[in-house]
Specification:
The complex is a heterodimer of chains A (297) and B (517). Chain A is an alpha+beta fold. Chain A folds into two domains: 207 residues, Up-down Bundle (Multidrug efflux transporter AcrB transmembrane fold); 78 residues, Alpha-Beta Plaits. Chain A is built from eleven helices and six strands. Chain A has a four-stranded antiparallel β-sheet with strand order 3-4-2-5. A two-stranded parallel ribbon of chain A has the order 1-6. In chain A, helix 1 packs across helix 6 and helix 7 packs parallel to helix 10. The longest helix of chain A is centred in the middle third of the chain and has 31 residues. In chain B, strand 7 and strand 8 form a beta hairpin. Chain B has three domains: 204 residues, Multidrug efflux transporter AcrB transmembrane domain (Multidrug efflux transporter AcrB transmembrane fold); 89 residues; 112 residues, 2-Layer Sandwich (Gyrase A, domain 2). Classes of the chains: A alpha+beta (297), B alpha+beta (517). At the A-B interface, strand 5, helix 5, helix 7, helix 9 and helix 10 of A face strand 18, helix 10, helix 12, helix 14 and helix 15 of B. Strand 5 of chain A pairs antiparallel with strand 18 of chain B.
Amino acid sequence: MVAFNKYYNHFNLLSSVLIVVSLLLLIFKGLNFGIDFKGGTLIELRASDSKINVSSLRDRFNQMDLGDVSVKKFGNDTDFLVKFENKDNKKNIIEEIKVNLDKSFGNNYDFRRVENVGPKVSAELLKSGVIAISLSLALMLIYIWIRFEWQFSLGAILALFHDVIVTLGVFSLFSLEINLSIIAAVLTIVGYSMNDTVVIFDRVRENLRKYSDIKIFELTNISINETLSRTIITSATTLLALLAIYFFGGEILKGFSLAMILGVVFGTYSSIYIANTVLVRLRVSQKTVLREEEDKK
Amino acid sequence: MLYFSKLRILFITLFSVLFILIASSNLFKFDDNFFDKKINLGLDLQGGSYLLLEIDNEPVIEQKLQNLTTTIRNYFKEKNIKINNIKLENQNIFFTVRDNDKQSVLDVFQDENSDLNPYYPRFKSHQLEIEDTGINFKVNFSRQGLIKLKTSSQDQAIEIVRRRVDEVGTNEPNILKRGNNRILVELPGLDDPMRIKSLLGKTANLTFRFVTNDENDRFGVEKLKFENGLEEAIVSKRIIISGENLLDAQPKMDTQANQTIVSFTLDRVGAKRFGKATSTGIGKQLAIVLDGKIISAPVVRDTIASGSGQISGGFTFQTATDLALLLRSGALPAPLEIIEERTVGPDLGQDSINAGMIALAIGFMLVIIFMFLKYKIFGLITNVTLIVNLFILLGVLTLFEATLTLPGIAGIILTVGMAVDANVLIFERIKEELKDETNNILAFDGGYTKSRTAILDANITTLLAAIILFFMGSGPVKGFAVTLGVGIFTTLFSVYFIARLFTSIYVSRNKDKEKLI
């Protein structure tokens, strides 16, 4: 049996630090919002001429008076991602750019993807993203409240907040782009983390009913160990699937799968080291479970 | 938990085979119409354009209020109430009346059956609101009035948008209302939306008006620019004919002048007015104005009574075709603005499909190998179940003709990764049961029973997340929610029926074997 409970305090401290650092990053550094949430224009461009590279593209685009332009390689050497604010939401901007690029590069490039999000739409998308995440957290809270005692709900929700905040913290730290698919990833993380926590909690509650003489400190450790191989196997298969998406699913899914990979790792960790320690700190005992059940009757 | 009746086995087999057949119908082209359902590919996979248009209702509101000032004045004139100082400011109409008329004005506006201020009987709210500010009356649209105005201009606009898109002839466009002032246009297979964008960006408000030098024209005048942006002309506000009078418009080649023109035919009213105007206005310049710009201003040489005519303006064949198209499909009630555009080229779509399929294949293989190494014979059972699960998932998506997007493929891969969870929970539980239970059948039975609540809890939480995503997400992300959500149901089915069936067959044949799992 692995003595997870030996490190409860250490990891609680670590998690607190992680959360504080993530929050500080989120407040002071902020998130790198993509055009979905900030508005602007994105062009994915494929070149068939080696003359076209990041610096020549940057030169060209900077001459066009588009405001802040970012040009990056996208996946392989011939693909580029160009992003700019398009502040005035100019109507025929794409056509103008094409005309301009034709002058320098002729026909040796191709727009593979064009996205243009106006300021109104991006503000709405951001709002609905925030609502979606809040709503999912609220729904999870309600669900677990119905299924378990309040101490368990608190543990699960703290674990969820931890996962969401730390994942976003990593995105802030490395300035990774937040777009619509990241919101989808965060929501899935919420579901996964909850899933993982619930499986362990289920076992904790079962054991609480079974053993009246084992303290919660020991009991959580027993429960974690009993469900450990399941935790490992499920995380492993999920991670295998996600790694396949990350490495082979193309550039567009990179951010999405990365967020999910982080989420699965943090989710697995938090089920063990946050959700359970809340039960320990709240001194949950057999009485907690039995009393609640009597109330429900 | 391990017993299966013959009937049930038959049902499970038939059900699985049915869905495998449905799913594989995506791979083959059936010529008959027996089963023609297929999974739709999202715009991000098949390539195409997504445009979100917003109707700018401000000019419409302004125009309606402008008309209303005249209506109010005339309405009360009949009732011998004089309206003074009427003016339009910031979408409010202000006017004053004599003190002893005040109450009768308010009565007219607040009467439930008022013909000046309608809607009350239907909506329990008037079209207009009136407020006595002390100095004057303030009249503006009520909430209900604005909603009605917006939905009616949306209804008109979507019709015009549909006509214009249809005229260009893209395959299977999808045109939908969004809210009460937006229109969503999805154009599959279109990788250069430039033409459609420029067609949708034009209001196509066509008027024929005389060029005038008389500043004191009874209808007022305005200075308008020519299309080329260089010249200007002063044009009367009196409209001779407008786009509404057009029956047809076609691009033509004028062989005499060797230029492309747009020829048009007028309806009866238009023809009459056009004839009258051209007979009295010989020698004058008639400006053809489109969306506030003069296309051309030819001199009237003859009376045109035939009700047909032509517009020239240095068109290329393409611009003439587009202008004719715009005139045929009619004017938008209000300007449209493209507030969101997402276009994916067909080759990127194909690349995404390929990448998605490769990722799915690799993810699937990895999970299968892992499960086999970990659980041997039961890993094999899980893997067979996983494959059937995948087919059922694809079958359900086919049956509902769901839209598959790139994140949707990611959702399928993720389902593969998470689908084993339920089986793992069961198998691990069985292992525990076997520690103090020597009877294999009882241990397996216990494993299935005792793991049930955890499995349900785990899947419900993921389902909740998927449901929220489905309602809050848009486009590609919605596709992810669909595959993730449907995947949960197919997974539960495969685990509790297919995998359990295989397990029960294996266990009952090896009931006395030790270390079964």
